[in-house]
Queue: 4 jobs
Job 1
Amino acid sequence: MKNYCFHIGIDVSKLKLDVNVLNIQTLVSEHFVLKNDVKSIKLFIKTLIKRKIDICDVLFCCENTGIYTNHLITISTDLKLDLWVVPAMEIKRSKGISRGKNDKTDARDISYYSLRNIDKLALYTLAELDILKLKMLYTEREKVLKSLLIMQTSKENIDFVNKEILTQISKINSSLVCAIKKSIKMIECKIKQIIQSNEELQKQDRLIKSVPGIGDQTSLYFIIATKGFTAFPSWRKFACYSGVAPFEYSSGSSIKGRTKVNHLADKKMKSLLQMCAMTSMKYDAQIKEYYYKKKAEGKNSMLILNNIRCKLISRVFAVINRQTPYINTYKFAS
């Protein structure tokens, strides 16, 4: 494991970055405030170099704050800096009992987190450009779909609004609905173009959809969530990320809770897997038989469906690892 001389904790917000530079030898900290833009971050890196600090011996650590970390990620990728992007919840829970907060102390806490938890280090790797494009397009599609659902609620006014007013509203509403549907088609067309232009993504998409019950949208989200199947070493890790892995809840001899999934999960992935599980029960004889077998044993329906979700994840990772489509061996069974 690499030994860093400096741990730099960065508290990221929309307009500024609070930076805490922690010297490991002296355990002395320095606080800086930068604008959250490319120019200011580059100037800060130059300042470190002028102080004769070897950038190779520096670990930069920040919370995952979505798009606000983009400038920092871009610079770290261009200059090949060691950047560790950590979920905000993990840093918050590692602090223990704390009272009050501000950006300066948050930056300091992040730098100390990176020092104390160096054994958990997972350096940030920039996802392939096409995957980033797919992520942005998928996000936009979700927003537009929500808008479509909101616009379609105007139909509820039919029996309760004056006909003259309703006619005027309906014209406006129908034109907006048409425009939104066109936007959705454009986004989906762009997504298909990106996948078809990238040989690796095209192959992954084809392999994922070979698993019974998995369609276009779930296949797309699998690619985005796994960063092209580079972010998770095994299907079990991804099942945990998706919120379908069961965990024991017990303590001593007095607390014996039931095994259940954790609410900390990618809720979108979880809901997509739920729909896939329901679909696979209709079109996959093996899954259907498994469901009714467990149901006859007295198992809860949601528990069985959760097991099916795990099965689907394991099948997807299996076809990706083998690089061959899913083969339904059940139909060859005697």
Job 2
Amino acid sequence: MTAPLYNAEILRLTTAIPHDQRLVDPMASVERRSPICGSRITVDVNLDEEGRVAEVGMLVRACALGQASAALLANHVVGLDAEELAAMRDRLTEWLAAGEGAAPEWPGLDVFTPALPYTARHPSIRLAFEAAAQAAEDAAAARRPR
């Protein structure tokens, strides 16, 4: 028997998205959109002196899977740097593409295991991680001396 795609945990996450307000003056801001369903997520970041995410703000206009992914990202993004976020984005992408195996090491991502066979839903799951990784990279690049 397969688990339901929209399970109780995914629906719970949609109601508990931390950092759900845009930052006033972010160091970087990136929007990602899923062309399949129209989900959109904007991530704003500010980095600390060590290049780690100090503040994050988000605008989430996404399906339940995108909202749940944004909640999971927001719960654990503070303190990570651009390289760590890019690596997590890549591991998530690889896991979804493989369609099997254990979820990447990020608290709660296993909630998306039932979505593995639904490749059309994968872009929505990746949106928040893609936007956060790019925003952190853009902010870090802006801080580098020229």
Job 3
Amino acid sequence: MAVKEFCNREVVIANKETSITGLAQLMRQYHVGDVVIVESKNGFSEPIGIVTDRDIVMEVIAKGKQVDSITADDIMSRELLVAKEQDGIWTMLQRMRAKGVRRMPIVNEEGGLEGIITADDLLELLSEELSSLCMVHLRGQKREREARA
């Protein structure tokens, strides 16, 4: 299964000059825990970093920094782990686990942002698949009982 089939195409984005307050307002408005930081490049938005709600708490609030003087550029994660649209779910999951990241932007062949997938998205997908697998077993038992009655 390719990641493009399951990623969320509605990604909240901002540029690196966006203030911390602006990022927090975006997170609140769209009910998300992250904002992908992008730069325009060749007519598309290229992801260059990500800021999470945890980044704001750990890097700004907990350190007592002045919120007004800090931008996304100051705290964004720059070593951004991305997946290509055609990458498989299993491969992507292994990469997320290896790097300890919970969110991964999805890019097209040119590096343009196409979506995002999170650990929560993957948990939902995998739980649905496991539930379907359980139903195979239960329906098999039912079918067997009916056939042998």
Job 4
Amino acid sequence: MNAKIAHSEGFRIINNYFETQGNVPFSFQTKTWEKYTQGYSGLVIAPTGFGKTFSLFMAVLMDFLNHPEQYHKGLKLLWITP
């Protein structure tokens, strides 16, 4: 993982959340967080219960925690599910 992200306040908060639950993020989740912070968009495909929600939602949350001044009123995340 990118050192800049790994040392960010948002990552620290989210990683602490995982630890309090007795978990660690899967590598595909941390890769998703990194790609999101680099401006990529994409699609995460994994079986049900595998952690897709955390890979995507936490990426947006981490970015908000790291850069709250960049977020203004309006849509930030569109979640489509079957």
